[in-house]
């Protein structure tokens, strides 16, 4: 017995959408949360599709570039503003701005035009960059970072949403993989470009560069059509009950919970002891807010910012957990391998970024092949197993790096880790898209992106605690004549200026051992992906041949049936 085709298969023309949307604005009593499928919807094909994918990949690249480029600008910024105590806020303001509103972006994309909403978020990101570049005080710079982070939250969700709207399900894995893989180049190129700007011009160009480069990406998006799945209501018709449609009360409850948790992790063990009243108070406040939000979310039901039916489903929840642990494991390498190169091997910040290229290039190449493999196999779980095995081995081998380790070791280890990360990078997004209908899609994407950002936030705190505690433990044993506190305060390379040649080998050994211990956690997190991947669902992503011999998009009967089966199991 044939089941109805997914709403994702029902295409549209913009004119029809406009005409059909008008009646919704004249009937004040109509529930605008129930959106009508767009008739005769057609996907973008050929050269136009690749232009759109390239443009959103470039915007995502700029976002991650901006996230990393600030690391090399911070010393010059603190010199100009005499603001060394604010360094922690320079790094975390963007993180705070992007994490809290992330779930809300899914609701925004559901009700507003996707292309123009995406461009508005990008404009917010650019405004934040301009404020940072033109900053005349430390407070102004921190404000700019927060605004840029808010724009980045919408960019992350919007990039995946646009690709999903433009291409059928079986074509998305390689496109999403290349988008995510290319954007991660920003992580390694950020220090290189930032170092060049701060050395040869001014640190302000680290942020001004987003304007002309971003304009090129926008020019690739504006002329092209992004086909909507549903007829979006007139924005003016939403305003009277905007708080209801976007669940702004839910956002007002969740945002403080997230921010208090991030602040506690930021302050704990650094600005304040973990047992201090400040940190404990923030943690208690966060838990209280999460509990209240949980009750509110349950009360709101399907109208909630993160619908309970979505986050209680095994395939969606496990996809979020999988990508959270995956990215948390990878971030250990991305942040602590450069520390190994600079502190232990004594190379410059720019050269350490070059040494990270094996990890970035291998994951970029594998991301494309992984997408093709998912399309051919039809399921994400076999590729997720491959990803988990390689990532676990690669991150585990990082822990063998010591002073004097050959380049062959750190290159080979990075390639293994990069292959694992590249293979698994887009799998959670693909699994959620296959499992959910068009009504839930943007919320599902926002949930996965939130998990992908929030997981590493917590993991980085754990990495930092492990590293600092290990340094304090190792220095007295391996370099008893050196103060562990002085080593920590001196930074990754500053200790070489006062440590004697006799004590230096012991300090380098202590640094290497401490970095290795962070990689133990990274390997454990990668291994735990092997538990969560089995809950991502066996949804067939391949197109099915119908009675007429033509190939469907793979988003119809088999996906809907798999969804029903999964709900029964859960």
Automatic annotation (TrEMBL):
Residues 52-541 form the Major facilitator superfamily (MFS) profile domain. It is a multi-pass membrane protein. GO terms for cellular component: plasma membrane. Residues 1-25, 544-570 are annotated as: Disordered. It is found in: Membrane. SUPFAM superfamilies: MFS general substrate transporter. Residues 560-570 have a biased composition (Basic and acidic residues). The chain crosses the membrane at residues 47-65, 116-140, 146-169, 176-196, 202-224, 245-265, 277-296, 316-337, 349-370, 377-398, 410-432, 444-466, 518-536. Its main location: membrane. The keyword Transmembrane helix applies. Keywords: Membrane, Transmembrane, Transmembrane helix. One of its GO terms (molecular function) is transmembrane transporter activity. Belongs to the major facilitator superfamily. TCR/Tet family. This is Major facilitator superfamily (MFS) profile domain-containing protein.
């Amino acid at each position: 017995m044939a089941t109805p085709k997914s709403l994702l298969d029902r295409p549209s023309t913009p004119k029809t959408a406009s005409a059909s949307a008008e009646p919704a604005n004249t009937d004040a009593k109509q529930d605008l949360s129930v959106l009508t499928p767009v008739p005769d919807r057609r996907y973008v094909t050929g050269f136009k599709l690749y232009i759109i994918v390239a443009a959103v990949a470039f915007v995502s690249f700029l976002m991650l570039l901006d996230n990393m480029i600030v690391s090399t600008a911070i010393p010059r910024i603190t010199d100009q503003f005499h603001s060394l105590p604010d360094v922690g806020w320079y790094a975390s303001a963007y993180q705070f701005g992007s994490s809290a509103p992330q779930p809300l972006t899914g609701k925004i994309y559901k009700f507003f035009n996707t292309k123009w909403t995406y461009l508005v978020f990008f404009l917010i990101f650019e405004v934040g960059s301009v404020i940072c570049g033109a900053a005349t005080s430390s407070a102004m710079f921190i404000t700019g970072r927060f605004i840029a982070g808010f724009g980045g939250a919408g960019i992350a969700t919007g990039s995946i949403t646009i690709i999903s709207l433009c291409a059928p399900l079986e074509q998305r894995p390689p496109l999403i993989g290349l988008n995510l893989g290319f954007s991660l180049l920003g992580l390694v190129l950020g220090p290189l470009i930032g170092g060049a700007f701060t050395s040869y011009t001014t640190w302000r160009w680290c942020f001004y560069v987003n304007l002309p480069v971003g304009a090129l990406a926008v020019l690739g998006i504006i002329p092209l059509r992004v086909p909507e799945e549903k007829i979006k209501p007139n924005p003016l018709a939403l305003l009277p009950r905007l708080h209801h449609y976007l669940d702004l009360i839910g956002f007002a409850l969740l945002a403080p919970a997230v921010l208090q948790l991030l602040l506690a992790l930021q302050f704990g063990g650094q600005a304040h002891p973990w047992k201090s009243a400040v940190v404990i108070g923030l943690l208690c406040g966060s838990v209280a807010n999460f509990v209240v939000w949980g009750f509110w979310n349950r009360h709101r039901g399907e109208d909630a910012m993160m619908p309970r039916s979505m986050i209680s489903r095994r395939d969606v929840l496990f996809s979020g957990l999988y990508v959270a642990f995956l990215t948390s494991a990878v971030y250990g390498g991305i942040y602590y391998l450069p520390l190994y190169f600079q502190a232990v091997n004594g190379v410059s910040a720019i050269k350490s970024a070059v040494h990270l290229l094996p990890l970035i290039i291998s994951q970029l190449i594998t991301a494309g092949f992984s997408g093709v493999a998912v399309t051919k196999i039809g399921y994400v779980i076999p590729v997720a197993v491959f990803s988990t095995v390689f990532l676990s081995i690669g991150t585990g081998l990082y822990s063998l790096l010591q002073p004097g380790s050959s380049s062959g070791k750190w290159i080979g280890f990075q390639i293994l880790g990069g292959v694992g990360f590249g293979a698994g990078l887009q799998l959670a997004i693909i699994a959620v898209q296959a499992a959910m209908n068009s009504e839930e899609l943007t919320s599902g994407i926002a949930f996965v992106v939130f998990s992908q950002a929030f997981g590493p936030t917590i993991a980085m705190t754990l990495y930092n605690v492990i590293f600092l505690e290990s340094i304090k433990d190792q220095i007295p044993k391996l370099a008893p004549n050196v103060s562990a506190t002085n080593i920590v305060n001196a930074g990754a390379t500053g200790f070489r200026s006062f440590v004697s040649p006799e004590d230096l080998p012991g300090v380098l050994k202590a640094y290497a051992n401490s970095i290795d211990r962070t990689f133990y956690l990274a390997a454990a997190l990668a291994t735990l992906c092997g538990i969560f991947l089995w809950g991502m669902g066996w949804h067939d992503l391949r197109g099915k041949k119908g009675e007429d011999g033509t190939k469907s998009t793979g988003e119809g009967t088999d996906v809907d049936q798999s969804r029903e089966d999964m709900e029964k199991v859960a």
